[in-house]
Amino acid sequence: MMTERLVVIGGDAAGMSAASQARRMRKADDLEIIVFEQSGYVSYSACGEPYFVGGWVEDFSDLQVRTPEQFQAKGIDARIHHQVTSIDLDGRRVAVRNPNGEETVAYDQLLYATGATAIRPPIQGMDLDGVYMLRTLDDAARLRSLVTSGVERAVVVGGGYIGLEIAEAFEHLGIHTTVVTMMPTVLERTLDPDMAELVSDHMRSMGIHVETGFKVECIAGAGGIVAGVGCDDRSFPADLVVLALGSRPQIELAKEAGIPLGPTGAVAVDDHQRTEIEGVWSAGDCAEALHRISGEPVNLHLGTVANKAGRVAGINLGGGDATFPGVLGTAITKVGDLEISSTGLTELQALEIGIEAVAASINSTTSAHYWPGSSPMTVKAIAERGTARLLGAQIVGGPGAGKRIDIFATAMWSELPADELAWTDLSYSPPFSGVWDPVHIAARKAGEKALN
Amino acid sequence: MMTERLVVIGGDAAGMSAASQARRMRKADDLEIIVFEQSGYVSYSACGEPYFVGGWVEDFSDLQVRTPEQFQAKGIDARIHHQVTSIDLDGRRVAVRNPNGEETVAYDQLLYATGATAIRPPIQGMDLDGVYMLRTLDDAARLRSLVTSGVERAVVVGGGYIGLEIAEAFEHLGIHTTVVTMMPTVLERTLDPDMAELVSDHMRSMGIHVETGFKVECIAGAGGIVAGVGCDDRSFPADLVVLALGSRPQIELAKEAGIPLGPTGAVAVDDHQRTEIEGVWSAGDCAEALHRISGEPVNLHLGTVANKAGRVAGINLGGGDATFPGVLGTAITKVGDLEISSTGLTELQALEIGIEAVAASINSTTSAHYWPGSSPMTVKAIAERGTARLLGAQIVGGPGAGKRIDIFATAMWSELPADELAWTDLSYSPPFSGVWDPVHIAARKAGEKALN
Questions:
Q1: pTM (2 d.p.)
Q2: What is the ipTM of this complex?
Q3: What is the third-level CATH fold of A4-117+248-317?
């Protein structure tokens, strides 16, 4: 028996999920698995980083799901501080810079799972001391040591999930915090403006300054050290600036090698995570995924998607037959006690791509209104006019509100229309909801709007 | 235009939902609506009663969703302390005992929504002072005044949802509490034994004594006052005994009048809430509903079902066309910090009715394992061998665990098989779940068992 070799570029969620799954299915003398990871960590939780910075998660090692040694023990040769510098598709080999020099490693199967990297905007003052980004575990460790040594004022540039989570962390540490975003609202990729307003109102009530519609073109400094964001009359003083402007897929290696990219600029894959090159696979933040509502490829940077796509690639590399079923883009976060979640398209996104969308927003409570722990909860459901097909949903509310987005996600997954979701048999007891769950009410109203 | 008259017997969830819905759709000069309610309250929250007894809900009026006056103002003639004593189907009229005497009231349409009543077992000592049941608001008020005036030891007979909720309330008040049930486990109608053990273990850790497999045949007393449960060597001293042995549909009036009952002993209805008698409808705890998994009629006493069935009846009475879509029996409760929920059939119930069921139970956590508020969570998913059709699910775990049952309920509603639920796009962030939600993991394992 010939031993095949699988080389995985990138040792985070997608790469290690795939490696683990392939290893479970094929023995070491059948499939050798080598993972090259340029950082010092494999399989880490990027999503946990803001919570480490904020001090809720105290143990840095908690952010590492598994160590290279643990993978080695399972028969996966996970090599950290190994950076793949080029891919030779014809020769079926990769060039690798390792701590001792350079090497060339041949492969039979290649999984391209390089992930995403933080967007580094062309802003004057980017190189000042005190300007940071948060993407890698090293970033998190650095930020953590900074915030525990006397930061007084921080500005977070970017109003996406990560931006808000970092702002929450800073506020929790007693740092005077400002979030600035050039967008008209926070979370504009996942929430419609009416829902986003609830989030910024809550942030302000927590003492976080939120500045929307502010484009940062300059970071001010003095003596090489950051002094604030904005260099004109409108500026925000800061001794720490974190840029959270989103991330982009790491496709340079793929592009240079000639692995085809898709319309989003990420690696194009089929529903088995195969690229267009025989023997080359891709999964995770660097690859596209099909959106189940729009039917279009998207490039979402979500741990859930990376884990699933990695698993699919791993099953197929392991000799099985798995199909990646697509994504809805379901996501959740919190700022203080406020839970925020969304799935599918926003109303604006649906309209933009030409779907006739209607939406209903309802105000309800997380529990029976008379339950002592009950708090407000707003649910927005978006449906297609004429069919009541669910296109998306958004939830903003107190403890217990956010995870209800999974009800919408499951309904959308199953193509259950809004007017039918309105009748489903959901659980009720006063500490948990009203007798009609807020999800029911929003679905019913969206269904009525869609069908009338 | 002739004004039709709708008479509703029973002014709780089903009756008032129907009345409200019909009123929204038809004006008062088109449809007169009279509701006869034998108690002093309409539209009250029976599910909130244990929480009023326990003192979490302080205001008695919170248990009344709406008052008779509020219904009057909406054009619904809701008459409390009016007991219907017989139904004359041929004459289309009901006999009513009101506070001033007797009357006969004609109807064009009749909605039979009498609800359920607590089962009163034939136990010696039932009439002793200090033996109570909890069903009506008056029961709740009586129990509340009792527990706040020096009860030291209480025994709750019955290990169902209400029994556990009352026990939680007593424990919360510092009362020495014992739950006895003749069943081998608590919650045996909604949880399989492995899951039920987690609940009784937790109750014991809270200081609640749980005695399973104990059939109460005698309540002991002295001088007409209760002294304990059990009159032999095995007995439990108590100065308060609450019987929570479940409820049965109030079908006496229907039976006497000749309204046909179904196989469960409750009123038989079609999917429009019509009984077999022209012009006579029924909804709520007194009526049957179709179980979506077994395909059989069931008689569940759940506020959610009563509200939905009432709404369906109301839409149809209002001139619309609504179909009751069936039930899964989804339910949730809590004991202390432990959340408990279930939907569909238990593994045992599925096997009993001849379905080849397989089950997978998994232990996970409510949040990422490293999140400070994370607590254990066990999920059991039950699927049909060969098809992976989801038959039921059960969840027992810390805060945030219980409401996830709605994901299963929505999947089951849509006939999404376990192996597909395993790939759905559910929300993830460390404060809310692991990257694979416990629901995913349980669904995947159940799917694998079912298909292999």
A1: 0.97
A2: 0.97
A3: FAD/NAD(P)-binding domain (3.50.50)
